[in-house]
């Protein structure tokens, strides 16, 4: 049995995405996977999001709220969204930051109004969606961002060496083993974002930032 099976619940009636129900196991897995560097990587992601005091931030596929809470330390308010009510229960239980709230929701069909957030972030979420929903989700992220608002995506960067990749596949499944991170930037550009930047955080994370143009052509 793969480790992923201990954390995932599938299918979820609200989405074709692969949801996580066992938040505690997920956090233990995260701590092991990042080898003590999870906090540092996620604090850096919060910085890279460009969120500032006064900003309204949306964290999509928030899981247990690990990124949500770090975003809360740099922004005014953060809403963490996830289809899994079970994982949100843990997020609410372990969150003490008063400016974090959580709600059930799916990336491919956001209920938020157009232009309603200054920053939209997500980490390790896109590879949980079937490939055909990823572009839809990115267009939804653009829709709910205000013009000039900022997108931050963190995704799993599979190991370059084949043995490491196979090990990731054996532990977690094909979505992480074959995560097509080289497609992130073109997909984000095709979804109407500009000023795209990207880089690697160690271990495992490829990040991309982008801006919703003031006027969309
Ligand atoms: C690997 S976890 C990442 C959690 C958190 N962002 C982090 O970095 O620790 C992926 C999350 O995406 C959620 N997810 C699955 N399908 C989704 C969808 N359609 N929309 C939004 N989130 C989804 C899962 O329930 C899970 O909590």
What does this structure look like?
- It is built from nine helices and nine strands.
- The chain is of the alpha/beta class and 217 residues long.
- It has a single domain, classed as Rossmann fold.
- A seven-stranded mixed beta sheet has the order 5-4-3-6-7-9-8, with helices on both faces. It has a two-stranded antiparallel ribbon with strand order 1-2.
- Helix 4 links the parallel strand 3 and strand 4.
- It is globular.
Percent in strands:
15-25%
Q: pLDDT average, as an integer?
A: 94
| Secondary-structure element string | HEEHHEHEHEEHEHHHEE
CATH architecture: 3-Layer(aba) Sandwich
* Bound ions, cofactors and other small molecules, one mention each: S-adenosylmethionine
Q: What is the CATH topology assignment?
A: Rossmann fold
What structural class do helix, strand and pairing data support? alpha/beta
Shape: globular
What are the low-pLDDT stretches, counting only 5+ consecutive residues below 50? none
Number of domains: 1
Terminal residue distance: 49 Å
What percent of residues adopt helix (DSSP H or I)? 25-40%
Q: Write the CATH homologous superfamily.
A: Vaccinia Virus protein VP39
The assembly state of the depicted protein chains is single chain
Q: What is the overall number of helices? A: 9
Biggest sheet layout: 7 strands, mixed
Strand arrangement, largest sheet? Answer: 5-4-3-6-7-9-8
Computed Rg: 16 Å
Number of strand elements = 9
Provide the CATH top-level class.
Alpha Beta
């Amino acid at each position: 049995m793969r480790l992923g099976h201990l954390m995932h619940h599938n299918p979820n009636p609200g989405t074709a995405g692969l949801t996580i129900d066992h938040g505690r196991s997920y956090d233990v897995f995260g701590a092991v996977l990042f080898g003590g560097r999870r906090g540092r990587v996620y604090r850096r992601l919060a910085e890279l999001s460009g969120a500032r005091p006064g900003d309204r931030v949306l964290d999509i596929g928030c899981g247990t709220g690990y990124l949500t809470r770090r975003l809360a330390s740099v922004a005014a308010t953060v809403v963490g969204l996830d289809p899994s009510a079970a994982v949100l229960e843990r997020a609410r239980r372990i969150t003490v930051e008063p400016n974090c709230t959580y709600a059930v929701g799916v990336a491919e069909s956001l209920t938020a109004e157009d232009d309603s957030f200054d920053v939209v972030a997500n980490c390790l979420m896109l590879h949980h969606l079937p490939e055909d929903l990823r572009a839809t989700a990115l267009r939804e992220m653009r829709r709910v961002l205000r013009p000039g608002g900022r997108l931050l995506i963190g995704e799993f960067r599979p190991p370059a060496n084949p043995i490491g990749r196979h090990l990731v596949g054996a532990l977690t499944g094909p979505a992480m083993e074959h995560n097509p991170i080289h497609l992130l930037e073109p997909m984000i550009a095709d979804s109407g974002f500009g000023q795209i930047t990207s880089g690697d955080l160690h271990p495992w994370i490829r990040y991309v930032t982008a801006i919703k143009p003031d006027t969309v052509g």
